[in-house]
Amino acid sequence: MIAVDDYRRVAPPGAVDIILRLAEHVRGRRFLHVSGGRFGGGAAEILQPLVPMLSDLGIDAAWEITGGDPGFYATTTALRAALTGTERALTDEALDHYVEMNRVNGKKLNLEADLVLVHDIQPATLIEHRPGEGRWVWRCHFDASRPSRRAWAFLRPYINQYDAAVFSLPKFARRLGIPKYVIAPSIDPLSDKNRELSPREVTTILRGLGVPQDKPLLLQVGPFTPGEDPVGVVDGYRLVKKYYNVRLVLAGTGDAERESVETLAELREAAHTDPDIVILELPPDAHLQINALQRAATIVVQKSVHEGFGLGAAEAMWKGKPVVGGFAGGLPQQIVYDVTGYTVHSVEGAAFRIRHLLNNPELIARMGAAGREHVRRSFLITRHLTDYMALLIHLTR
Amino acid sequence: MSTVATATDPFRFIGCVELRQSLDQRATDERELLDRLEDVPSGSVFYHTHGYFLRHRPITTAYGNDFAAWVAVHVRDQVLAERLAVINPFEFSSLEALREELLSAVHDHLVHLSVVPRVEYGEVFHFQQSHIVEVPLGSAAATLAEFRQGLAEVDASAIYYHMVEARARLGRRSGDFAEWLRTSLGMTALAERIQRIDAYMTSLERVRARVLALVDTALEEGA
């Protein structure tokens, strides 16, 4: 198991000492996380290292997950989509079933703690079954600022029963009757997705993926969905390709949604006519492959038009890469314009900035170094841990 | 008193962690910035001005406070950005006096405009405030040499806590370093020099370096 002390070699100077000092105030306090699962991205990805770190610090940390039947999962998936603004049909019957399943979860799970952090949608209605003691906080990992009216009207009364809510950015929040704290997500620098890799490891992994390293590499990592605009990235690449002999790699996951299938088909068609466009459909746990691709990249692109926090930008900056990102979600908060990369509003803007960087290689190195330091201070798990302990102290004084 | 004096009450370094809280007020143009700035809690004025110093990193372009940064980057009104950036929060005796100065700058700027500048392609301004969680760092200093050693090693948030938070929110107008040097070691001249350090538009590490340089000089003179 990785210990908090192991982060001294990657965290900012003094950060681990602050964590150890904070821990002295909350040693033995019970800090429970409740989420919908232990695997995948979002809440689970960060809780996997975070909960053991809290325990390592002497905090009585625990992590419970809610269970349910296929109907429960279908409803929570639809509800989450509706809360992020996508049109979804939500019947009263399905919502009643979701609430009922959480009533059952509430009986099964041990929900006694000084602070209970309930992550995202699946366990959200558990608040109705809170024991007498302890503070309850809803942790929202997505952009809830433009939900469908019906979905928000359903969820809001539950959220207002919490003592507080936590959002990743102020702009992701809705008006609520409870305090709203702001805690940005983070990356784990010692995980497979972000740990150091030797050049030989990178070469071996890229060879396995069928990606040659004979020319500058442009990379976008993310789902093949319109929101990530991979088609726009291809268009931008084509504008760059007139001047620079580069290769474009689009790495990500697809899903069964019609829009995703259509996007992937369009990308495959583009790759069919240009051998320098590489489409890599990877499984969700291809962390080492993503790590190697990001390290091999010359410039990382995250040209999203609709985005959550978009931690891929922080991952790339941690590997010393400049990022050209869309002006969406959390990308403007991560990319310091003209310092660690550029935020752009169009295909042309992306192409212009990529050409600008390729034409000034010293900028690539300088922005990459600045990006790594920016992430070190603002987006590592050590900062996240500090914020959660501050929340624990503040709410359970 | 000499530089080898020993204080009966040692200086205890305290770091801090900021827990951010989002408020429901936001601004999409400079008129809304003016209106909301009038209403938000004083803690929000503090967060967006003094607090900028804790969050600001030397790699980013300096605007001095969040209001100036937003107007410059997202509204793209360089004139108001300059007028807001030049307001030094450390010069004001109270947060209400600082708020009044900020309001005057925005108001006087808008009076001369026929169209209110607004965000077109940038981000809306979200008002926030913060809760500071104090973190005693364990190290204590009874002599000037021990103070120097502790200061060189502590987390940068301790510089913020003792130089900014203590002055602006905790009512200790001299700052904790100057106050302790004056009252516990009797080093009035050094205390005044530290009190005069301009903490505006710089980084915590630079302020640390300036305090250390002044202490080093005092130690050399006393040796």
Topology:
The complex is a heterodimer of chains A (397) and B (223).
Chain A: H1 15-26, E1 30-35, H2 43-56, E2 60-65, H3 70-83, H4 92-108, E3 115-119, E4 135-140, H5 149-159, E5 164-167, E6 180-182, H6 199-209, E7 217-221, H7 230-241, E8 247-252, H8 258-273, E9 277-281, H9 287-296, E10 299-302, H10 312-318, E11 323-326, H11 331-334, E12 341-344, H12 347-359, H13 361-378, H14 381-395
Parallel strand pairs in A: 1-2, 1-3, 3-4, 4-5, 5-6, 7-8, 7-10, 8-9, 10-11, 11-12
Helix pairs in contact in A: 1-14, 3-4, 3-5, 6-9, 7-12, 10-13
Chain B: E1 11-27, H1 30-39, H2 42-55, H3 66-75, H4 78-85, H5 95-111, E2 125-141, H6 144-153, H7 156-168, H8 176-184, H9 188-195, H10 204-222
Antiparallel strand pairs in B: 1-2
Write up this protein.
The complex is a heterodimer of chains A (397) and B (223). With 397 residues, chain A is of the alpha/beta class. Chain A folds into 2 domains: 4-186 and 380-395, Glycogen Phosphorylase B (Rossmann fold); 199-378, Rossmann fold. Helix content of chain A is 44%, strand content 15%. Chain A has helices spanning 15-26, 43-56, 70-83, 92-108, 149-159, 199-209, 230-241, 258-273, 287-296, 312-318, 331-334, 347-359, 361-378, 381-395, and strands at residues 30-35, 60-65, 115-119, 135-140, 164-167, 180-182, 217-221, 247-252, 277-281, 299-302, 323-326, 341-344. In chain A, the strands form 2 sheets. Chain A has a 6-stranded parallel β-sheet, covered by helices on one side. In chain A, strands 9-8-7-10-11-12 form a 6-stranded parallel β-sheet, sandwiched between helices. In chain A, strand 11 (323-326), helix 11 (331-334) and strand 12 (341-344) form a beta-alpha-beta unit. In chain A, helix 10 packs across helix 13 (361-378). The longest helix of chain A is centred in the C-terminal third of the chain and has 18 residues, at 361-378. Chain A is globular, with a radius of gyration of 22 Å. Chain B has helices at residues 30-39, 42-55, 66-75, 78-85, 95-111, 144-153, 156-168, 176-184, 188-195, 204-222; strands at 11-27, 125-141. Chain B has a two-stranded antiparallel ribbon. The longest helix of chain B is centred in the last third of the chain and has 19 residues, at 204-222. Chain B is α+β, with helices and mostly antiparallel strands. Chain B folds into 2 domains: 11-16 and 132-222, no CATH class; 20-128, no CATH class. Strand 6 of chain A pairs antiparallel with strand 1 of chain B, so a sheet runs across the interface.
